[in-house]
Structure formats: C-alpha cells, structure tokens
Amino acid sequence: xxxxxxxxxxxxxxxxxxxxxxxxxxxxxxxxxxxxxxxxxxxxxxxxxxxxxxxxxxxxxxxxxxxxxxxxxxxxxxxxxxxxxxxxxxxxxxxxxxxxxxxxxxxxxxxxxxxxxxxxxxxxxxxxxxxxxxxxxxxxxxxxxxxxxxxxxxxxxxxxxxxxxxxxxxxxxxxxxxxxxxxxxxxxxxxxxxxxxxxxxxxxxxxxxxxxxxxxxxxxxxxxxxxxxxxxxxxxxxxxxxxxxxxxxxxxxxxxxxxxxxxxx
Length: 265
Prior knowledge:
By secondary structure, this protein is an alpha+beta fold. It has one domain (18-239, 256-262): Jelly Rolls, CATH 2.60.120. Helices cover 35% and strands 14% of the residues. It contains 11 helices and 8 strands. The protein has helices spanning 18-29, 31-38, 41-47, 49-65, 167-174, 180-186, 189-200, 202-208, 213-216, 226-232, 235-238; strands spanning 80-84, 105-112, 121-123, 128-130, 137-140, 147-149, 157-164, 260-262. It is globular and about 60 Å long.
C-alpha cells in the first residue's frame, strides 16, 4: 500500500504487468520468503521500539479504515515490498525520499556472491562500508541516509528484498485520514499555528526515537533506566505488536577520512 504520486487516497501498488503480478503473488506466498521477511521484525521492535510502534499502529489504522488495502506480510509493520531480481542488483548512491524520513527501511540481500569481494552496503554520510552477505538483513533510515551497494563479480548473482512505508501514509493518518491539502482547507487558524509549532520541533523529537549505542550495548533498548523500564513500562514497550489477522495467515576533490569497514556475519 502507498500514498502519493497522484493518488487521492492510500491504495494498493499495482504491478507493471499481469505477468509481474502473478510472479509477485507466488513470491510473497512462498513460506521461506515470508519467514525471511518477518525475521527482522524482532530486532526492529527491540532496537527501535517507538518507530516500530508508529509503523505498526499506522498500518493497522489504515487497514481498519480501508479493508481493501493489501497486507503483504501480516506480521510486518511495513506497508510495501520491492523485489530486485537482478541478476546483479546494484544501486548508485541515493536516498529514498518517498519513505518516512524518521523511519526505517529493511533490506535483505540474497543470491550467490562472495561478500568479501562485492555487494557491500555503502553509507556515504557515515563514511562506512558494511559487509553485507546474502541472507542478512539491515535496517537503515533510507530516506535521509545516502546509500548504495558495490558491484559483485561477473559470474555471481545478487537479489534483494526491500520493505518500507511511504511517508504519505503517516501524513494521511495524522491528518485524520485526509491529504495535506484537504486538512489545510478545513483547519482553523489555531490548527495551523499548532502544526507550524510542531514542525519546528519535529526533527528534534524524531531524533529522540532512534536508539543510542550506549543503551543498546547494555540491553536498555528503550533508552530508559532498566529498573524504571521494568517497573512502569507501558504495554507498547514490551508487547508483541502484530497484526490482528496474523493467525489467519501463515506466516575528485579533497579526500576525506577513509571509510570504516564493518563486518556483518
């Protein structure tokens, strides 16, 4: 499901052809693919709980409002899936500007290639090169972090599964299931003033929802004191948030610093 690109309301993304649609149906119905695409949900919920909760609740609200919206993976908080079938999937440096800026994108690498010789994930803003073997998943804020991946060898194959949610879906929901234009037309002057005030502080509030390494390394995934967390944590902090119907379906210039290499085993 997506919103934007000329749509007047959220809707299902249509395949480019009937052949591609049939192929996508077979792929997302495959048991192994479904398990692979739901595997990263645990780390997402544990490490980025506020962001995960917002994704989950927004998706649930949309589907209750519009039952016809397709739920590709019932256990996943992401609204959409892109499949790159290669056979040598390589992307240049880019940002996914249509995704939620203060959100996450899940990338799963597949294929048969030597991860020591190619297929690395490059995070340009952080000066990082990350070893990215087939079968591994990575969560990144792809709307604001410039990323790419390095080429593989001529006799190798690389594919990828990408799960994400369009930023327009969150705006639609926060507007009371309206577009920005429709909201602005019906909002009062007080509403506009409050929204402008919220916009000025949005980036600071968004940063607070991302985890800090000092908390992650001691298991304090929500960024709160561990004792406080266990005494008065809200249900959303520790509950297994999944979809309501999950039981019904089976799951050339100056040189900067040298990039740091990270191994993903």
